[in-house]
Amino acid sequence: MNAPLALPRLNDHPQRRQLNDEAHARPYEPLATPACASYLAYLHRNASHEQELWLIGELCAWGNVPAPPAGCLHWSTVVGDVRIKWARHTEFSSLTVIAERSAEAPFVQTALTALPPDWLAQLPGNVLHAAHAWLLPELDLPGEADAVSAQYFEGHELIGARIGDGAGVAYTDFRIHADGYTRYVLGNAGMGARQAGRMLQRLFELDTYRMLAFLALPLAKSISPELSDADRELAELTGAMSNAREEDEPALLNRLTQLAARIESALSKTDFRFSAAHAYYEIVQRRVAELREVRIQGVQPFLEFVERRLSPAMDTCESVARRQRVLATRVARASSLLRTRVEITHERQNQQLLASMDKRARLQLRLQETVEGLSVAAITYYAVGLVGYGAKGIKSAGVALNVELVTALAIPLVALTVAWGLRRMRRVLAAHAD
């Protein structure tokens, strides 16, 4: 057999391997039957990435296994007789603990009991979702949903369906029980270990993202009264604009500016939460679709439960977000109209000021022309005086000269010369100014 030809090394894109590995990130943990699993999802706003890695490293040190590498966002390992899967997401982190054991004491001996209690106490707060799940052969489950509820869910109403196109069955009541955990029971009728792991992970994520989406609802309810007050104030301001006097316009514009600032502040506080809720809602819908559920007679399926509870909440959030945007647009439009009125008033005042300045300039010109006539007379007086003194000096030198006649003849000549010179100077200055 011929040896394969040596091919030249490819010139990869710098991010080729990173992008390719992204498709394999956060893999599902295989789940043999029977088994139990515990799941925690907590907001990591009070814990940095480094702090979480240190905490996972402490657990690995307790179990004498390698610690996660620096900078990783997900880690899976075996500690003692349980498997640990940790993942850090954009807004929350999740911890899954899996133990392969029979359900001799369901929801009493859980997967978390295999971990040291003092380590569990160090986990960050803000737990949003905590759940215990049991995977059993379907034949070990009671045949009726009411019996399943009585045995595992304290008689609560069940939500469930056949999953994986009938390869298994899943039940929950979506309630937080006395121990602080939600419960899931899965019956395996033909699922492999990987499919069972995928189905359980989808159930955990469905409830996690459902809770994350619900985070926007209290915010929407709390901000609704503020929006109603802003709407009433805007109606009052727009009504006052039609009858406002010029001196009232700056005060109205100031109130509109303050109202716009309040609305923009509210938008900055809620925009991320509402956008995140919309994204989480879409993930919930995808997770429900990935269950490929088949309805069980008399049991509410997951899709119906999610759409009945979560969809109205998301509609409320979307309504509040849309109302915020519309209100911000209305305030901006009212501010623009009032600002236009203020600018027109300022322009009218500027026109009046310019007209007053023009009138003052004309008066100054008339005064200048009057002063110019007096200046011609004054300059002529002094210039003719000089001519008279000159004529007297010439007569004293022995020249027969009529001083009075020379002085009289000099008056019109000097006056015309001075007037012509001043006028020419004024024209030159005016041309230079233009």
Please tag this protein with its features.
58% helix, elongated, alpha+beta, Methane Monooxygenase Hydroxylase, Chain G, domain 1, 3 domains, 434 residues, 9 helices
What report would you give on this structure?
- This protein is α+β, with helices and mostly antiparallel strands and 434 residues long.
- The protein folds into three domains: 26-192, no CATH class; 216-352, Methane Monooxygenase Hydroxylase, Chain G, domain 1; 370-433.
- 58% of the residues lie in helices and 13% in strands.
- It has helices at residues 16-22, 49-62, 117-120, 145-152, 193-214, 216-242, 249-291, 302-396, 403-433, and strands at 35-43, 74-79, 82-88, 92-99, 127-137, 159-163, 168-172, 182-188.
- Helix 6 packs across helix 8 (302-396).
Distance between the termini: 99 Å
Give Rg in angstroms.
46 Å
Beta-strand level of the residues, as a percent range? Answer: 5-15%
Q: What's the helix count? A: 9
Q: pLDDT below 50 for ≥5 consecutive residues: which ranges?
A: none
Q: In summary, what is this structure?
A:
This protein has 434 residues and is an alpha+beta fold. It has helices spanning 16-22, 49-62, 117-120, 145-152, 193-214, 216-242, 249-291, 302-396, 403-433, and strands at 35-43, 74-79, 82-88, 92-99, 127-137, 159-163, 168-172, 182-188.
